[in-house]
């Protein structure tokens, strides 16, 4: 039976995973779905076994995740992963997806570092002020070098990285990470792609000095970005407990002042669970980002602001049209305000036509869930829309709004 989805918005993360082709976006996404598949949904077991079987079947057949938005769960948080094309030819599509996500993880190849496509997508994300973390992947590869990649992040992306982790070991001997927030080590001993949990240990003796040095850098960088941390730091030094540091890192990341840096190898399943924790800890919920501003239909000068609340009139942006082998045409939308209900009549405020919402689905890695209605902040696939294209706004017929229009083709972004 179709369910109504209303969620505590503070527990929702709408994120994209962006990368240069081959950096490991697909593998990282698959590992995320693997771990979240064995995770728990709020109050109910989330069919873990089914998800894993499905992943194995799909991998055997060589099929990868193709949904434009996939919903998964991690530690009582709902993560909607919005597909962000990595290929530079899809620049317009990248812009469309950047428009509807609240935060992103940029995946870099631990050998190649920052590559041209990553620079392009990074600049597009700058344009939309998307809070971002970096995951330095493939550290198991010969030539993998975390510190060199870090240098390329500073030099090529003009970003202020906040290093939260250091690698333990390198290349084939890469076994885990030093966590500079908790000041411990997280170590994966096994060689497995099936996924295993890490063991929390003391920081290895040969990395102790380096860990202290980088912890100092972390706190100093954070203090530069956050007055509350600066005040305490100047008076008392590094007396911060883990929740205080995490809250400050979250503030600075959401304000787009700092980019947390994490590392691992998605392929060998090392670093993925801490990456998921960081998505929850540091990337924004729909409540943390600016409310959306649109305008009156046919009058760009009259601005209308909508809060991310179910009590507001409906406004939703169509961002992707896809063809599902079983369902036919699906239109992915982000609901910014109000409720979107199956069977309801809405106004396409962009073209002035009435539309009837057919079925509404939340897409998961292994199944789609039919839902009766969905609230603000959510991303769903809608069936039955006839005249709606990407970039169009679905709106309450009595309170129409056109969300900020995007001009296409997108402006050319120069690559240095
Ligand atoms: P995408 O193009 O960014 O989606 O990259 P993929 O996830 O498809 O990965 C490209 C190639 O790199 C594949 O052959 C992966 O198996 C491999 N790969 C991905 N992550 C890692 C990693 O952490 N270590 C190693 N050694 N290979 C990886």
Automatic annotation (TrEMBL):
Its main location: cytoplasm. It is found in: Cytoplasm. Transmembrane segments: none annotated. Keywords: Cytoplasm, Elongation factor, GTP-binding, Nucleotide-binding, Protein biosynthesis. GO terms for cellular component: cytoplasm. Residues 10-287 form the Tr-type G domain. GTP binds at residues 19-26, 83-87, 137-140. The keyword Disulfide bond does not apply. GO terms for biological process: ribosome disassembly. GO terms for molecular function: GTP binding; GTPase activity; translation elongation factor activity. Catalyzes the GTP-dependent ribosomal translocation step during translation elongation. During this step, the ribosome changes from the pre-translocational (PRE) to the post-translocational (POST) state as the newly formed A-site-bound peptidyl-tRNA and P-site-bound deacylated tRNA move to the P and E sites, respectively. Catalyzes the coordinated movement of the two tRNA molecules, the mRNA and conformational changes in the ribosome. Belongs to the TRAFAC class translation factor GTPase superfamily. Classic translation factor GTPase family. EF-G/EF-2 subfamily. This is Elongation factor G. The chain holds residues 1 to 416 of 704 of the full protein.
């Amino acid at each position: 039976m179709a369910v109504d989805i209303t969620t505590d918005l503070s527990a929702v993360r709408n994120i994209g995973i962006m990368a240069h082709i081959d950096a490991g976006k697909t593998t990282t996404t698959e590992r995320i779905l693997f771990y979240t598949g064995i995770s728990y949904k709020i109050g109910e077991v989330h069919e873990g076994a089914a998800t894993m079987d499905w992943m194995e079947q799909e991998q055997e057949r060589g099929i990868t995740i193709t949904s434009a938005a996939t919903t998964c769960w991690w530690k009582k948080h709902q993560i909607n992963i919005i597909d962000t094309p990595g290929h530079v030819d899809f620049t317009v599509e990248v812009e469309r997806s950047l428009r509807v996500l609240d935060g992103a993880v940029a995946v870099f190849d631990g050998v190649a570092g920052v590559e041209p496509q990553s620079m392009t997508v990074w600049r597009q994300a700058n344009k939309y002020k998307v809070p971002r973390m970096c995951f330095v992947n493939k550290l198991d590869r010969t030539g993998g070098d975390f510190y060199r990649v870090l240098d390329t992040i500073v030099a090529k992306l003009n970003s202020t990285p906040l290093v939260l982790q250091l690698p333990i070991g390198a290349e084939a001997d890469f076994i885990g990470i030093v966590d500079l927030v908790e000041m411990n080590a997280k170590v994966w001993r096994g060689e497995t792609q099936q996924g295993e949990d890490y063991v929390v240990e003391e920081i290895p003796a040969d990395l102790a000095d380096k860990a202290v040095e980088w912890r100092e850098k972390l706190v100093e960088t954070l203090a530069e970005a956050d007055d509350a941390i600066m005040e305490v730091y100047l008076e008392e030094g590094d007396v911060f407990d883990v929740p205080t540091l995490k809250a400050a890192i979250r503030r600075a990341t959401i304000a787009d002042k700092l980019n947390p840096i994490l590392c691992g190898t998605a392929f060998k399943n090392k670093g993925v669970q801490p990456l998921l924790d960081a998505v929850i800890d540091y990337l924004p919920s729909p409540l943390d980002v600016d409310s959306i501003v649109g305008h009156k239909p046919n009058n760009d000068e009259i601005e209308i602001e909508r809060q991310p609340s179910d009590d507001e009139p409906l406004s939703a942006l169509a961002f992707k049209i896809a063809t599902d082998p079983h369902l036919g045409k699906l239109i992915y939308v982000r609901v910014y305000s109000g409720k979107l209900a199956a069977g309801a009549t809405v106004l396409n405020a962009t073209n002035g036509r009435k539309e009837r919402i057919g079925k509404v689905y939340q897409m998961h890695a292994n199944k789609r869930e039919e839902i009766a209605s969905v609230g603000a902040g959510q991303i769903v696939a809608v069936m039955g829309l006839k005249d709606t294209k990407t970039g169009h706004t679905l709106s309450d017929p009595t309170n129409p709004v056109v969300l900020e229009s995007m001009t296409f083709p997108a402006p050319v972004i120069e690559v240095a």
